[in-house]
């Protein structure tokens, strides 16, 4: 096995790296927006890499996709209409559609090639794409939110790449103001918020910009994600109203009628507990 190649992603900002042992490269495409590569790994199934950054593997994407969707859905009283900005691998879309009471989910990714690659190499993530409640579209999420009808959505999930390149504009006040307008009064915004260990300043800036846009309540939930920098990730939920985002529909989550790999009511409670350094930095009671 010593001659088997590895794919490493070096994180310059954390001085660390994560790697997977590779069998071979399966595909590569340069879209108008980014370079997408697919590798077969020896132990984690297929791996999608965008512009050198690992996005998903077959074996461990469930941490991220389940926490990006179910935590917010069970924090909202009765979500009907959801928009996903980014999320082109379709894993978050699949998780949202596990909720029978959800009426519509629009996924708006800027890059059709990400979804075409996911259909080919991660078909299990795309198994709900033809659900009649799903709309899979390809456009800039910034423009999509700017043009969204006011108070038309219950939850917006920003499942984006890191805040560089096409995703840069998904992390600023102007975008959050458009999200604020598009949400109903009890609406929630959820954003992948990077590693609390490596990028706390980014979470602070993000929450600050969300507050400047009018959001009233915030909660950052940490969870494992082995293929992302430091292996430890987070999502941040922002509420349009002032409310306790640590309160969620626990009995419904405990009785969820669908299968997950990570999310359950107990893991949701666990993710609401923050380590001391996060509490100090974020002041989210
Ligand atoms: N889970 C991954 C992570 O946190 O690294 C993200 C996965 S998902 C594949 C990220 C998606 O965001 C990509 O498909 C990319 O095309 C999309 N994206 C980046 N900028 C965007 C924008 N401005 N509008 C819509 N989608 C965007």
TrEMBL record:
<comment type="pathway">
    <text>Amine and polyamine biosynthesis; spermidine biosynthesis; spermidine from putrescine: step 1/1.</text>
</comment>
<comment type="similarity">
    <text>Belongs to the spermidine/spermine synthase family.</text>
</comment>
<feature type="domain" description="PABS">
    <location>
        <begin position="4"/>
        <end position="240"/>
    </location>
</feature>
<dbReference type="Pfam" id="PF01564">
    <property type="entry name" value="Spermine_synth"/>
</dbReference>
<keyword id="KW-0808">Transferase</keyword>
<feature type="binding site">
    <location>
        <position position="166"/>
    </location>
    <ligand>
        <name>S-methyl-5'-thioadenosine</name>
    </ligand>
</feature>
<feature type="binding site">
    <location>
        <begin position="159"/>
        <end position="162"/>
    </location>
    <ligand>
        <name>spermidine</name>
    </ligand>
</feature>
<dbReference type="GO" id="GO:0005829">
    <property type="term" value="C:cytosol"/>
</dbReference>
<dbReference type="InterPro" id="IPR035246">
    <property type="entry name" value="Spermidine_synt_N"/>
</dbReference>
<dbReference type="InterPro" id="IPR037163">
    <property type="entry name" value="Spermidine_synt_N_sf"/>
</dbReference>
<dbReference type="InterPro" id="IPR030373">
    <property type="entry name" value="PABS_CS"/>
</dbReference>
<protein>
    <recommendedName>
        <fullName>Polyamine aminopropyltransferase</fullName>
        <ecNumber>2.5.1.16</ecNumber>
    </recommendedName>
</protein>
<keyword id="KW-0620">Polyamine biosynthesis</keyword>
<feature type="binding site">
    <location>
        <position position="65"/>
    </location>
    <ligand>
        <name>spermidine</name>
    </ligand>
</feature>
<feature type="binding site">
    <location>
        <position position="89"/>
    </location>
    <ligand>
        <name>spermidine</name>
    </ligand>
</feature>
<feature type="binding site">
    <location>
        <position position="34"/>
    </location>
    <ligand>
        <name>S-methyl-5'-thioadenosine</name>
    </ligand>
</feature>
<dbReference type="GO" id="GO:0008295">
    <property type="term" value="P:spermidine biosynthetic process"/>
</dbReference>
<comment type="subunit">
    <text>Homodimer or homotetramer.</text>
</comment>
<dbReference type="Pfam" id="PF17284">
    <property type="entry name" value="Spermine_synt_N"/>
</dbReference>
<comment type="function">
    <text>Catalyzes the irreversible transfer of a propylamine group from the amino donor S-adenosylmethioninamine (decarboxy-AdoMet) to putrescine (1,4-diaminobutane) to yield spermidine.</text>
</comment>
<feature type="binding site">
    <location>
        <begin position="140"/>
        <end position="141"/>
    </location>
    <ligand>
        <name>S-methyl-5'-thioadenosine</name>
    </ligand>
</feature>
<dbReference type="GO" id="GO:0004766">
    <property type="term" value="F:spermidine synthase activity"/>
</dbReference>
<keyword id="KW-0745">Spermidine biosynthesis</keyword>
<feature type="active site" description="Proton acceptor">
    <location>
        <position position="159"/>
    </location>
</feature>
<dbReference type="InterPro" id="IPR030374">
    <property type="entry name" value="PABS"/>
</dbReference>
<dbReference type="InterPro" id="IPR001045">
    <property type="entry name" value="Spermi_synthase"/>
</dbReference>
<feature type="binding site">
    <location>
        <position position="109"/>
    </location>
    <ligand>
        <name>S-methyl-5'-thioadenosine</name>
    </ligand>
</feature>
<dbReference type="InterPro" id="IPR029063">
    <property type="entry name" value="SAM-dependent_MTases_sf"/>
</dbReference>
